[in-house]
Specification:
The complex is a heterodimer of chains A (498) and B (153).
Chain A: H1 3-7, H2 9-12, H3 15-33, H4 39-46, H5 55-72, H6 74-80, H7 89-100, H8 104-137, H9 142-158, H10 164-179, E1 181-182, E2 189-190, H11 204-222, H12 230-233, H13 240-243, H14 250-265, H15 271-285, H16 297-309, H17 315-321, H18 327-338, H19 345-350, H20 352-373, H21 376-383, H22 389-408, H23 411-429, H24 435-457, H25 469-497
Antiparallel strand pairs in A: 1-2
Helix pairs in contact in A: 3-5, 3-20, 4-5, 4-11, 4-18, 5-18, 5-20, 6-7, 6-8, 7-8, 7-16, 8-14, 8-16, 8-17, 8-20, 9-10, 9-24, 9-25, 10-24, 11-22, 11-23, 14-15, 14-16, 15-16, 18-24, 22-23
Chain B: H1 5-9, H2 12-28, H3 36-65, H4 77-96, H5 99-113, H6 119-140
Helix pairs in contact in B: 2-3, 4-5, 5-6
The chains are: A mainly alpha (498), B mainly alpha (153).
């Protein structure tokens, strides 16, 4: 089962594939360091540019960006008390007070070492857990695959928190977008309105760029951020090997890695929750909890190790079942589809070199974090905060247009992307979750095809969907995911009243 | 105090829910011409959108009756509208005037309009970005960009 993992290793060391990870990590740190930009947005903008690249080069870039951005978010969190990514909120609690005391450099070094450890643990979890899970899912037939898709959508809607009605609307919208184009079985047009450009359906990249890249650009132009550069000018960074002996946080790193991996696997949870839980646990078990919040380096370590431990582990359900654990994982699924790699059990059977190579790239990306973001580079990355946001916004607009135009060489796709962007901005402002839209688009066609196949096998009898144990377990899990949060809330409310 | 009838109907969530209902109902019409099995999933999703949006609308109106203020979608609507218009204009300009001219104008124009006022910085950034795009995409990858419908190309 794990022999494929070793066979994939030589490909990862091809210079183009390795360079892709290096470039990805640097780009990820830059993106993460810019408040308002996220790994999701960066990967969305990047995906169309990877069409002509080898799959491992493209996936290496994505793995690097994901790892880099999760650490990069700590830079403004420490220096400005503005989390560069949502997962870096908990980093501000102790990181910013450290910067105010003139220990910003050490805080960033703690962050980078912790991020790296979390990323390494997460990559190992992906390597160990994904292959056996993929073997199990290989046994699934059309009705089980249909229920896996339904379970995936239900999990991301109901476990994501927030308003379930908005989550459901997002998912319905995503699934509806997935049916636009020719019917996969009968070939008749659905909702194309005579537009030849829509016959093949809507390319996922157009949706990704619109939903995830346009709203942050509008944010960049809407709210100019003024930085005084005070904290970034007094980092006081010493070489990382000199700082390492001061970092004795093994228990926190271990606990945070475990929490991050676990939360990453759960669909819909994400890095913010992992960081908060790890921070709270570390504080609860600390001998000096009163120093937390006033510049305790262990607080930075707890938050950063957990938010990076959730990166590769979020891909465990994504690669094996096609259910992403986080928004970034959902976008990465889109990246896999662009290269003709359908996430799910067949991926491991048909493309072992690519899928296992991708896992190695995650591991190397996490190790490279310390080398690329650790010492002198920390100072340089901190200076990124002074980049003018309007200029950055205008450059991203150009990149978005180039990326989407180059998919098919037509402006129709650009206009479509702008339409999705406007929808994405409204959804973002009204707090409609975006991951269910992407997942709906990915799983919609997949679910429909398998539903219709299952119904054909059962000669039109819908009971075919409930005729085996695996399907029933998946139905029960779906019901649990849908009903569970409501029951839990009622239980907590009734205990409070009592 | 409960909001006036007019302001209750212009709450962002109410407007959005209403919009979804109208658009989804419009998309339902073509499903009648499809085979039943082809129409199953799209019709289910559209009906789902209509029902869920109705719930959303009702929930928002209940909040309005309870005197709960709607959160504004933006604190600076002019900047947001301006940003959207500039992005759409850039896409149209690329289509009708051509990619390189539009890009060379858009980068400094957007950055200047939204607060970056250094002429030298703008010039350097524009030259670097346009030059890099030309070197990588046009020269390196032979990628064709729109040359402008107005020029008949």
């Amino acid at each position: 089962m794990y022999s494929d993992l070793l066979h994939a290793l030589p490909d990862v060391f091809a210079w183009t594939n390795f360079a892709a990870v290096v470039i990805g990590v640097i780009a990820g740190i830059v993106v993460g360091a810019m408040p308002g930009l996220s790994a999701t947005m960066a990967i969305s903008v990047l995906v169309p540019f990877t069409f002509g690249l080898e799959p491992l080069v493209a996936l290496g870039l994505m793995a690097g960006i994901y790892n880099g951005a999760m650490y990069g978010g700590a830079i403004p969190a420490v220096l400005l008390r503005i989390p560069g990514t949502p997962a870096a909120v908990a980093t501000t609690f102790d990181g910013y007070p450290m910067a105010q005391k003139g220990e910003g450099g050490f805080a960033l070094q703690v962050a980078v070492v912790s991020s790296s450890i979390g990323g390494i643990a997460s990559a190992f979890a992906l390597m160990l857990l994904a292959p056996p899970l993929s073997k199990v899912t290989l046994l699934f037939g059309p009705s089980e695959v249909f229920w896996v898709a339904v379970f995936g959508l239900a999990s991301i809607i109901f476990l994501l928190g927030g308003n379930p009605i908005k989550g459901l609307i997002s998912a319905c919208f995503g699934v509806f977008v997935s049916v636009i184009g020719s019917d996969p079985i009968y070939g008749n047009d659905r909702f194309t309105f005579g537009q030849l450009e829509l016959l093949d359906g809507i390319n996922i990249v157009i949706l990704l760029v619109g939903l995830y890249a346009l709203p942050p650009v509008i944010d960049l132009l809407e709210t100019p951020l003024k930085t005084d550069g005070v904290n970034s000018s007094k980092l006081g960074t010493e070489p990382i090997w000199k700082a390492l002996p001061r970092m004795n946080y093994w228990k926190t790193w271990l606990r945070g890695s475990f929490l991050g991996i676990w939360i990453g696997i759960l669909p819909g949870a994400g890095g913010s929750m992992a960081a908060f839980m790890s921070y709270n646990e570390a504080r609860r078990t600390s001998k000096h909890p009163e120093t937390w919040g006033e510049g305790e380096p262990e607080g930075v370590a707890a938050a950063e190790v957990a938010n990076n431990a959730d990166t590769a582990s979020a891909l465990i359900p994504a690669l094996t079942l096609g259910i992403p654990g986080t928004a970034v994982a959902a976008v990465m699924l889109g990246g896999l589809l662009v290269h003709g790699l359908q996430p799910g059990p067949m991926l491991f059977r048909d493309n072992p070199d690519i899928v296992f190579g991708f896992m190695w790239q995650f591991l190397f990306g996490a190790i490279l974090l310390v080398l690329l973001g650790g010492s002198l580079a920390t100072n340089s990355f901190a200076r990124l905060l002074n980049l003018p946001r309007p200029l950055l916004g205008s450059v991203i607009i150009v990149l978005m247009l180039i990326g989407v135009y180059s998919i098919n060489g037509r402006m129709f796709d650009v206009y479509l992307m702008l339409g999705f962007g406007a929808i994405g901005w409204v959804m973002d402002r009204l707090k409609f979750p975006l991951p269910p839209v992407v997942l709906g688009l990915i799983l919609g066609g997949f679910a429909e095809e398998n539903l219709r196949l299952a119904l054909r096998i059962g000669r039109g009898d819908p009971m075919v969907l409930f005729q085996n144990t695996t399907s029933l377990i998946l139905v029960a899990l779906t019901v649990a995911v849908v009903v569970g949060p409501t029951l839990k809330k009622r239980f907590i409310d009734s205990r409070k009243k009592a | 105090m409960p909001e006036s009838r007019n302001s209750r109907l212009t709450r962002p969530e109410t407007l959005t829910a209403g919009g979804i209902i109208v658009v989804a109902a419009g998309f339902l019409v073509p499903t009648y011409d499809l085979r039943a099995i082809s129409a199953l999933l799209p019709a289910a999703m559209l009906i789902g959108l209509i029902v869920l949006s109705a719930f959303l609308l009702l929930a928002d109106q209940r909040k309005a009756s309870a005197g709960e203020d709607a959160t504004p979608m933006t604190t600076s609507p002019k900047r947001v509208i301006g940003a959207f218009l500039m992005i759409v204009s850039y896409a149209l300009a690329c289509d009708f005037v051509g990619f390189y001219i539009s890009t060379a104008v858009t980068i400094p124009l957007v950055a200047w309009t939204f607060g970056y006022r250094s002429p030298v910085g703008l010039l350097i950034a524009t030259v670097i970005v346009v030059g890099t795009i030309w070197a990588i995409f046009d020269f390196g990858m032979s990628q064709d960009f729109p040359t402008g419908r107005l020029w008949g190309r």
